[in-house]
Amino acid sequence: MRVGRLATLVLLTASLGACAAKAQVRTEVELPTLNPPPPPPRVVTIYQDEPAPVPVAPVVEAAPARPPGRPARAEAKPEPAASSEAAGDVAKPASPLSLTLTPMAGSEAQTAAAIRDLIARATRDLSRVNAASLNADGRAQVDAARRFLQQAEEALKARNVVFAGKLADKAATMAAVLVR
Questions:
Q1: pLDDT higher for 100 or 162?
Q2: What CA–CA distance (Å, rounded) separates 148 from 174?
Q3: Per residue in 29-45, pLDDT tens?
Q4: Whole-number Å distance between alpha carbons of 21 and 27
Q5: Considering only CA atoms, which of 120, 138, 130, 150 is closest in space to residue 174?
Q6: Residue range 62-80, pLDDT digits in tens
Q7: Given a cut of 80, is residue 171 above it in pLDDT?
Q8: Distance CA 145, CA 155 (A)
Q9: Residues in contact with 167: Cβ distance below 8 Å, sequence separation at least 6, in sequence order
Q10: Alpha-carbon dihedral sign for residues 117, 121, 124, 130
Q11: Are 115 and 174 in contact (CB under 8 A)?
Q12: For residue 125, how many other CB atoms are within 10 A of its CB?
């Protein structure tokens, strides 16, 4: 009886093992070959040298005659006293255009005071920034803001108020961002 049970157990184990096994077919999938398309046909043209241009004598045209000028108006003669003042104004050469922008005449002092206030605020903000705790980009921003402040001061001394205002505004903006 013992041998029968053992034989049954062996047959049962073998049959369960055979049922669990799967038949797998191992085949390799053929991949298509990737051949590039043939190149397009080339059209080669042969250029021929152009003949050298023949120099042509320039054609000289006669200058057109000037139309006769208008006669001066005799009616509008200024008084002698007024003519000496007008001649003095005309004799003065016009002042050359300057490259500095200036605000209107009455508001220059107010504008300069506002710019000085902006420079002071930017200087105060930059003094609160700990440059040692910043990374390299932050230190570069601090240096740039200080240069803007220096240039703004120089522009105010040169009475270029508009340029000084722009530089001071840039410095104040950078300093406000760095303080945060």
A1: 162
A2: 10
A3: 888 888 888 988 888 88
A4: 19
A5: 138
A6: 666 666 666 666 555 555 5
A7: yes
A8: 15
A9: 148, 149, 151, 152, 155
A10: negative
A11: no
A12: 20
Tokens of 61: 């045209």
Q: Which two tokens stand for residue 54?
A: 């023949």
**19, 25, 26, 29 alpha-carbon torsion, rounded to 10°:** -140
The residue with greater pLDDT, 84 or 158, is 158
Q: Residue 52 to residues 47, 48, 55, 83: CA-CA distances in angstroms?
A: 15, 12, 9, 65
Half-sphere exposure (CA, 13 Å, Cβ side) for 11? 6
Which of these, 144, 153, 134, lies nearest to 174 by C-alpha position?
144
Q: Is the pTM of this model over 0.70?
A: no
DSSP alpha helices (H): ranges in the chain?
2-20, 80-91, 108-128, 136-157, 161-179
The mean of the pLDDT values for the chain is 78
Length in residues, the chain = 180
